Amino acid sequence: DTAVSQTPKYLVTQMGNDKSIKCEQNLGHDTMYWYKQDSKKFLKIMFSYNNKELIINETVPNRFSPKSPDKAHLNLHINSLELGDSAVYFCASSLGQGASKQYFGPGTRLTVT
Amino acid sequence: AQKVTQAQTEISVVEKEDVTLDCVYETRDTTYYLFWYKQPPSGELVFLIRRNSFDEQNEISGRYSWNFQKSTSSFNFTITASQVVDSAVYFCALSFYNTDKLIFGTGTRLQVFP
Lengths: 113, 114
Fold this sequence. Notes:
Chain A is mostly beta strands. In chain A, about 0% of the residues lie in helices and about 55% in strands. Chain A is globular, with a radius of gyration of 13 Å.
């Protein structure tokens, strides 16, 4: 029944490790996003994909690599994790582009020690 | 510059009080969209409203109402007769017809005490 799901919900790892966060939506949407929310609750877009094509890439370090195997999935892989990567990562999806209503997943809290 | 400012970092009220959350935006575009999202303590982001720049009618949905004023570049959100369940962080956001990007404000934390 879940519209936008993310796994895992919590991720604790050490500096230098590589980790992935998975996102799936069952809403039939064609656009998916990754947002980062820092410790001060500031939300910023990282990437968006439309029909598996990268649309937005917001000056994110290239240690972050999104992958969209199909319209319903958008995964985020992070290499060589740093302390500053600790944050909550939200996946979202929408139907169509251009200021569409975005549905957010529950978030993944990443803690890098 | 495209920017959203939520000057109120934190607001505390007692249940049944009315409360208004301010949102001021900056853009030179004539076509844009404004949003409000709620983030309760559980952490998920819940969509509340989307309004386009050509529709300045105020909107009411139950205890929630929104006041959009282009003259002051504001899109304020009022909760009438607040309840403890309204406690959350509320985000105002700005977007445009030719992009998917949501530009968020810094959020206002609302605490409603019984």
